[in-house]
Design a protein that fits this description.
This protein is α+β, with helices and mostly antiparallel strands. The chain has ten helices and 14 strands.
Length: 410
């Protein structure tokens, strides 16, 4: 399993200039590769191979008078830019053929020097290293100061230097980890411990034991400061130095919100994975919900990022992660008897089952149903309704199906 460890970099002014040259050279080579492929497509010729592009754009490109500055940066950076272009086209064609999961991928576009994010990558053959003084030695850039927040668990296979929209520099190391070794890092939870998680807006997460985690609403709390910064930016003359300063101020305000949200997700996901052997969540249609009037609140919650963290941490530490179908009627079914009481408006936060008389909190009941459905999937490897504890609803009613005695054998 590959993981990324990111650390803040503090390059000196001269090193910032060298990094800017590297970003620019990598961008030019990437754009040249995209242009070469587009020209070949327009001429109805075969696409040039990566080897041909490397010889034409890098090896011979350095000898051209208008491209002599390509020799001022590491050749590995340029080769990785070509590889990025090749990967982008591979993803594009796989998406056209339906071989790639997820949303459709468009044709690679030209990169701009005004892009909010710039990045270059150094592989092992670039001979970068971490010095004894704890600095990152990069070819043709020098020893860059690093703020180490934790030790690296293994020797990195590559490092990417990233400049974000706020002008901050990061070193992102790729580490190959062993799941068997990582599983021993966290203490083993109680045998058979499992948790069902219902994600929401009023409460960010509700667990099946009734625990409710409030939503921090990082964006909502920072809206006043963001509006002020954005208003100041709109009043600056385009192309002026004051506008550039105002843009950085807006970017800093946004990355502060994003960093706080990510830290909250990391802490909560680590706690849940540490305390439970099985984690069950619901597969939400976030892209659809983000087109409703609740779009800002849904983006502010960051459910997708949180679920992704739960998934990779569960895989890393030997836990079981289950995502149940989004069409499971978790808010309509009584978690005690299994009776399906029908859909309810969002303003109904509590209800009483008409069959068994159990009073339910809407979110806690949904979390219990999510957990039961997830455990049923692991037991029988099929999506079934949660088991009921009593003889309430009829067998034909949706939501009342128990686990047949022969289901696991089948």
């Amino acid at each position: 399993m590959q993981l990324r460890y990111a650390f803040r970099l503090y390059p000196e002014p001269g090193q910032q200039g060298a990094l800017a040259r590297a970003f620019g050279c990598a961008r030019v080579v990437f754009n040249d590769a995209v242009r070469a492929r587009r020209d070949a497509h327009a001429a109805k010729e075969p696409y040039p191979t990566p080897k041909v592009l490397s010889r034409a754009l890098v090896t011979r490109g350095k000898l051209r008078r208008e491209r002599y500055w390509l020799g001022e940066v590491s050749s590995v950076v340029l080769q990785q830019a070509l590889r990025d272009a090749d990967t982008a086209y591979a993803n594009f064609f796989a998406s056209l053929k339906g071989e790639r999961k997820g949303p459709p991928v468009g044709e690679p576009q030209f990169r701009s020097r005004k892009d909010s994010r710039q990045a270059i990558r150094f592989t092992a053959n670039a001979r970068w290293k971490i010095t004894r003084a704890g600095r990152l030695l990069l070819p043709k850039i020098g020893e860059v100061r690093v703020k180490w927040s934790r030790p690296l668990p293994a020797v990195p296979s590559s490092v990417a230097v990233i400049k974000d929209s706020a002008g901050r520099y990061y070193a992102s190391f790729v580490i190959d980890t062993d799941p068997a070794t990582d599983a021993a890092v966290l203490p083993d939870p109680a045998p058979g411990s499992a948790v069902g998680i219902d994600l929401g807006l009023t409460h960010f997460a509700v667990l099946d034991d009734g625990t409710k985690i409030d939503s921090p609403r990082f964006l909502r709390r920072a809206e006043k400061k963001l509006r002020k910064a954005q208003r100041e930016l709109s009043r600056k003359q385009k192309g002026s130095k004051n506008r550039a300063k105002a843009r950085l101020k807006v970017a800093h305000a946004h990355v502060k919100v994003a960093d706080a949200r990510k830290e909250f997700h990391h802490q909560l996901s680590t706690r849940i994975v540490r305390e439970n052997q099985t984690v069950v969540v619901e597969d939400l249609a976030i892209s659809g919900l983000a087109r409703t009037k609740l779009a800002k609140s849904i983006h502010d919650a960051g459910w997708s990022q949180f679920v992704t963290m739960l998934q990779y941490k569960a895989q890393r530490y030997g836990r079981t992660f289950i995502k149940i179908d989004r069409f499971e009627p978790t808010s309509q079914v009584c978690s005690h008897c299994g009776h399906r009481d029908g859909p309810k408006p969002l303003d109904v936060r509590s209800w009483t089952c008409t069959v068994c008389g159990t009073a339910h909190d809407r979110d806690t009941n949904a979390a219990r149903n999510i957990k039961a459905a997830g455990l049923a999937v692991t037991a029988c490897r099929a999506t079934v309704r949660p088991q009921h504890h009593g003889g309430g609803a009829q067998r034909e009613e949706a939501g009342s199906h128990g686990i047949p005695p022969t289901a696991c054998a089948a």
